[in-house]
Amino acid sequence: MTAPAPSELAFIRFVSVENMMKLIHQIGIEEMMTGLVGYIEEDFRRWELFDKTPRVASHSAEGVIELMPTSDGEVYGFKYVNGHPKNTREGLQTVTAFGLLARVDTGYPVLLSEMTMLTALRTAATSAMVAKHLAPKDARTMALIGNGAQSEFQAMAMRAVCGVEHLRLYDIDRAATDKVLRNLGGLGFDVTACATPEEAIEGAQIITTCTADKQYATILTDNMVGSGVHINAIGGDCPGKTELHPDILKRSDVFVEFPPQTRIEGEIQQMPEDFAVTEMWQVLSGKAPGRTSERQITLFDGVGFAIEDFSALRYLRDRLEDSGLYQNLDIIADPDDPRDLFGMLQRAKG
Ligand SMILES: NC(=O)c1ccc[n+]([C@@H]2O[C@H](COP(=O)([O-])OP(=O)(O)OC[C@H]3O[C@@H](n4cnc5c(N)ncnc54)[C@H](O)[C@@H]3O)[C@@H](O)[C@H]2O)c1
Q: Which InterPro entries is this protein grouped with (predicted)?
């Protein structure tokens, strides 16, 4: 007896790393960044209807493994992601991820995707979306401190969305900076490799910090930051893992994703519980102002929130249909008679 073929509902779309890379090239990185920004903005504007919770973190001495769930009432999504700063020394990625979308009405999953690539894109798209609303309008120069896996994506998104053309790079490991120089060579940026973080931020209107270190690091000190800049701080995203001296936070207007999560994980973990922050969704919905003066220091204390992953998966779902860049994965046991799961197993006996 041959086992009956799985029903149509058994299959969900699966996007492998290979297909994700093909899709990114098919769409074009910068067009995809712009598209993702649109989806993230749309979801930030309907922020209030989402289920929201700080991500569920499992910490170890070496790193963290996190689950990031949310739902808009029709679609549910979650991402699995890790953060292990010591991994690169062992030839492994600091951050890897995959994620899933499901229907809320039946609970059936509909899409499973790699999200290591997609996280780099969504993180950069979120940074660029925030900079679009907070950075000085004439910002063309960005300091990029920390030249690891996220860095080129940050550059591409900031150009696509905010018009950044000049990059000033710094990393404690010169090999990382050389990698960025190689990767961005020929892509039309004006790139300068710098010997110190002080040199990197000279003349920069946007300062991006995306370093990885499992400690309270001080990538920027207070005296380094002049008025009028926008700081995009994305590397401090775990308890005990920050990038900025607390004095910078006192002089800046700090913008965050979801305060209950950012107070645990972000730069503001160094500040008292009642330290004033503005939620980015309020800026998007016109409920709070963004940049209000030329001299103001705006600071995005980005830790990465579940809704951004949800937006990215939604974008992916919508772009998949025409691309054909997916496989069908037989992942849901769906017997004809829903109560006959055991019978389905028996009929599959070889
Ligand atoms: N906010 C978010 O949504 C989000 C998303 C993804 C990753 N992250 C975080 O961003 C950071 C970067 O991620 P990645 O995947 O690029 O990591 P990575 O390990 O690939 O790169 C980090 C780089 O930082 C450099 N570095 C470490 N300490 C430094 C210092 N003191 N000064 C200058 N450079 C220094 C390292 O040499 C390395 O090249 C990580 O901390 C990660 O957890 C945040």
A: NAD(P)-bd_dom_sf (IPR036291), ODC_Mu_crystall (IPR003462), ODC_N (IPR023401)
Counting ligand 1 atoms within 8 A of each CB, the residue from 90, 179, 234, 310 with the most, and so the one to mutate, is: 234
Q: Are strands 230-233 and 298-301 parallel, antiparallel or unpaired?
A: parallel
**pTM as predicted:** 0.96
CA distance 211 to 150: 9
How far is the C-alpha of 131 from the C-alpha of 35, rounded, in Å?
16
The whole domain housing 168 covers 136-304
Q: What is the CA radius of gyration of the chain?
A: 21
* Pick from 85, 87, 93: nearest CA to 17: 93
Is 145 in the same domain as 82? Answer: no
Residue closest by Cα to atom 37 of ligand 1: 173
Instruction: Please indicate, yes or no, if residue 28 is contained in any of the structural domains.
Output: yes
* Res. 2 pLDDT band, cuts 50 70 90: low
* Residue 237 appears among annotated catalytic residues: yes
What Cα–Cα distance (Å) separates residue 343 from each residue in 9, 275, 334, 348? 18, 59, 11, 9
User: What's the domain count of the chain?
Assistant: 2
Q: Read off the pLDDT of residues 295-347 as tens digits, 9 standing for 90 and up.
A: 999 999 999 999 999 999 999 999 998 899 999 999 999 998 999 999 999 99
